[in-house]
Amino acid sequence: MGFPRAELPFDEVPTGTRSTDDAAAVRVVTLTRLYAEIGRAVAAPGRVQVEGDVHDRRVTQQGAIWFTLRDRAVDLPVLISGGRARRSRIVDGERVSVVGRVTLQQRKLQLRMEAEEVTPVGEGAVAALIAQVRARLGAEGFLDRPRRPIPMLPSGIGVVCGTDAAVRRDIESVVAARFPGFPVRFVETSVQGAGAADAVRRAIDDLVADSGVDVIILARGGGSAVDLLPFSDEDLCRAVAMCTKAVVSAIGHDGDRPVCDEVADLRCGTPSIAAQMVIPEVTVLRDLLDRARRDVERSAQRHLAAGQRELEIVRWDSALDRRCASLRRSLAEIRWSNALDLRVDRERVSLSAIAWSLVAPARCVVARRQLGAIDPAGPLRRRVDAGTVQLALLGARTHALSPARVLERGYAVVRSVDGRVLRRAQDTSPGEELTITLATGQIQVEVHHVG
Which of 198, 293, 312, 451 is deepest in the core (most CB within 10 A)? Predict the structure, then answer.
């Protein structure tokens, strides 16, 4: 094995006779320095992806997994942390693809690989991994959770896709046909291979933070089960299920069913279908707006007619109240007149009896005084006063409900040439003549601008 040449420190001096040939020169280094140089040489390849068979699988107390990756006569120890091991399928005898970095344990001078991802190779192993992920998500309730509704008119759409121009071109063509200029934000990222699941999850987080995005579409073309495996990643599926915005899965073709399809709010066979399901059609929206405007106009007309009927009822009620008050006054006058006549008759009889019996003059004086104290018109006046107060209250109520009173407070009624009452600026157009009715008089105007 060759190692990179390093500069000599001040305490490292060659011994023996120095040859004129550099290839024969010998460096004196410490063992620690030698191990460090070997470690740098081992780490030089960086992140690599290798395949092999799993042997001697062991689980530590912290949940990490050790296993031996074997390819023919070569063995390489592999370590994957507990969090990453939970997302992987590592079974003795199965062939896997491992992504990670090779490091050197200096004390034992032993190579090992620190894995980032362990992916099964082969349709059977991939299917088993997907089944395990589906079972865990189902046990946690993510598969049968209530789905978030797709807005009829989103403020914007975010699309997570690869750098493949075909998917983006398909969605842009749907936008041009259904709603030209509709806001769509594309986030291109890795959708296949090592690190794809984490990249897609970061793209989703980016779109969730965008206040202009209401719906997120995960879009990818077709591929093999291994190619689509990132979209069955357990952490990615959890992120989709727990997303605060509606997520549409459009992965592969109709026959491709990654687990992401089962936790999304809507599953579509292709990215084009997803765009058609999410992006509204502008002509349909215009029809809905026109229909809603007509409904509002009809409802306003019904309310106006009902208000006019109620106003007429109020007017008739006022006339009826005045008539009833008049009848009550007449009845009261009759009752008090009869009572007064009876009282006077009784007093006359009493006075006659006193006079005929020759009662003392003092008794006659008292009787005359009592007779003079009687006020026959007093109860009648009190009744009239009460009726006057009630009549004033009813008059004030009628006056407050009068349309003329509303105009006196500064309001005006604007009518078109055909007599329609205008309530919105959009009900008229420049050049049209209008009549404005004020509290006193009318004004003829011509519309120059509608704001």
Answer: 198
- Please give the DSSP secondary-structure letter assigned to residue 3: -
Query: pTM for the full model?
Result: 0.52
- Dist. CA 300–CA 294, nearest whole Å: 10
C-alpha to C-alpha distance for 390 and 394, rounded to whole angstroms? 6
Tokens in use for 444? 């003829």
383: three-class secondary structure by DSSP: helix
DSSP 94-145: -EEEEEEEEEEETTTTEEEEEEEEEEE-SHHHHHHHHHHHHHHHHHTT-TTS
> Which residues are 451's β-sheet partners?
none
Q: State how far the Cα of 269 lies from the Cα of 264, in Å rounded to an integer.
A: 13
Contact yes or no for 215/245 (Cβ under 8 A)? yes
Burial of 79 (0-12, 13-18, 19+ CB in 10 A): middle
Question: Under a CB-based contact definition with an 8 Å cutoff, are residues 188 and 217 in contact?
Answer: no
Q: Say if residue 93 is exposed, middle or buried (CB neighbours under 10 Å; 0-12, 13-18, 19+).
A: exposed
Task: Work out the pLDDT band at 263, boundaries 50, 70, 90.
Answer: very high
State pLDDT tens for residues 143-169: 999 999 999 889 999 999 988 768 889
